[in-house]
Amino acid sequence: MRGRRLAILGLLGPFTALFAATIALPIGFALYESVTAIERSGPLGRGTTSTVFVGLEHYATALSDPAFTASLWRVVLFALVQVPVMIVLATTLALMLDAASARGVKFFRSVYFLPYGIPGVIASLLWGFLYTPGLSPVLDVASWFGLNIDFLGASSILWSIANIVTWQFAGYNMLVIVAQLKSIDGDLFEAAEIDGASAWQIITRIKLPLIRPAIVLTTVFTIIGTIQLFGEPLILRPLTGSITSTYTPNLAAYNEAFANNNYNLAAAESVLLALVACVFSFAFLKLVNRSGK
Amino acid sequence: MRRRTFIALAAGALTSACAAAPGARPGQTVLRFWSWVPGIDQAVNLWNSQNRDTYVDLELTPAGSSGTYSKMYAAVRGGRGAPDVAQVEYQELPGFALENGLIELGPLGMDQHRDQFVDWQISQSSFGERIYAVPQASGPMALYYRNDIFGSLGLDVPRTWEDYRAAAEAVRADGRYIATFPPGNSAWFAALSWQAGARWFGLDGDVWTVGINSEQTLRVAEYWDELRSQDLISMQPDFSNSWYADLQSGRIVTWPSAQWGGPILSGNAPGTSGNWRAAQLPQWNPDNPASANWGGSATAVLKGSEHPREAAEFAIWLNSDPESIDLLIAGGYGWPSVKDALDGTALDTSEEFFGGQNVNRDVFAPADETIGTDWLWSPTTNATYLHLNDGFAGVVAGGSSFVDVVQQTHRQTVEDLRAKGLTVREAS
After folding, report:
1. Quick one: which H or E segment has residue B267?
2. Which of A258, A263, A264, A265 to mutate to test the interface with B (most CBs of B within 10 A)?
3. What average pLDDT does this structure show over B248-260?
4. What's A243's domain CATH number?
5. Is the ipTM of this complex over 0.95?
6. Which Pfam families match (chain A) (predicted)?
7. Looking at the partner chain, which of A44, A132, A258 has a beta carbon nearest the beta carbon of B241?
8. Mutating which of A129, A260, A264 best tests the B interface, going by the most B Cβ atoms within 10 A?
9. b vs e for B402-412, b when ≥16 Cβ sit within 10 Å of the residue's Cβ?
């Protein structure tokens, strides 16, 4: 009995310790920071400092800042467009690669997946060059046809970012769906064919229902990923005047912490962002479960 | 037992990794130094090669606002891990002072050495009568312009901002822009406001005064608003690839910039060598010429240092020893903060890139004499910069003006300072 208890402790210990140190503790600390503030006294504020409890004051500050709420709406709009585009594209690519008549499957699978192997920062830099007037071959070619495209303008920059994100992650999501497609029993297709099902019917009646879990999974990942949009706008920011320091909620929290040295407000903004991501992810799961029943 | 040994070993490895700097001799005091100034490693090597009791362990960091300041703030607040000596830009010094992060250097040698440095930079490094940093370099401003293009269009060098507007119209008619208004670089806008006589911040006893929306700043904002609405300026970010491409191709023909901008021009538009010249900034009031300062840095000793005396000695040496200054000039660190910066240094030379003009003696030395010296930064300068940048980005998107942005930033800055627990008054 004693040995068994020890074994349980031994097996769970490493996980619990890591979970506490890397998940629970940072979240707890962020929550603590978000409800405290530093108070100063003395000339120049260089007297004494003390940490005081301020309740939800930072949350109120964040939510009453029009720039921060605008950034929340911006990522929500971004997700509303980005998530369907991503999932439809990834599913289509996966189904095309899985089609019986497909050729060069391994080659194309690798090609689609390749962008995921490029670090996000480098991908953003590369795309940044393709978006910059005077350097971009894309813009040069467009100008031959009299087209004046402004990838970095205020109205287009969000979709230029969407392009980078799609380019980078569509192949990865495709691979998750391909893996599920591969696990479908081949007998099902054979039976369907004998019953006279067309290729389209096989997709809609067999493949799509059976890869549903993979699609749900990639959708949740994409929702969370888009709400947390950060690296792409951060890298593109020096190239354009259209990306503000509060362009996305993550960027706002980052600048609040590391440029304004206000960790407390940054913590509150981060917690708010996590809540939004939770709400959207669970709302989606709830929707899926209800329609699945 | 075994686990305990492992932990002991691991702890041992960690402490020994922190203790000694490679290169230090036994018995030497080791000073940790964080900086990102190009060429500063040469100066540090010189110090270390001169067989002293202290060894400087230089860590080249990313530029302050790219994360190094946040590391320093975190270390100062946490009480350990901060370097002994650190690079701090002038606009960031009040922020560190607010966090009680700086060691007063007057009693550690600066009181004896203060006369070696330019007065206004001593004031940038002081709070009240106390000196908290050793001035290193500044950025007196002037106008870089394309002499060949100005010549072919029959334009004279603009003496006033009204001349500059006329030149902008002529240049635009030729399919070029006179300059960019960098929407993401409000330090540049601050410098131009400084030139116009604005003073954004002041300290009246314990009370901070904010005067961002002063007449002078609004005048500058309005001027650039007019140029923008007539499409006479480009609105692309400075130091961006598209801007460099435009400098190289002649699509942009002037740059109101600091002395340290010269090497940036020659490095990024080498194909235009020989065609650039420098002249005094266009003036608001030519009878009373003024320049401004853009950029500028000091060397500070951070709280928590166990060797403040040695650290101060090094910081003073770094910024006043002629050999050290020569090495820093070669690295392109800017305009030295010591008095008579030009005499006998590598700065006093004519440059091929500027068609043989000795821009430092001809232009920047006199410009340096006309910088308004009572400019002050606030502990929340960074936030002010962000408000301006975000506002200017909004102007690019359309719908507002630089003047609106200045008004809005003024209000936000008052709030920022209050939020830090400071007493604030609006200057009027």
Report:
1. helix B261-268
2. A258
3. 95
4. 1.10.3720.10
5. no
6. BPD_transp_1 (PF00528)
7. A132
8. A260
9. bbebbbbbbeb
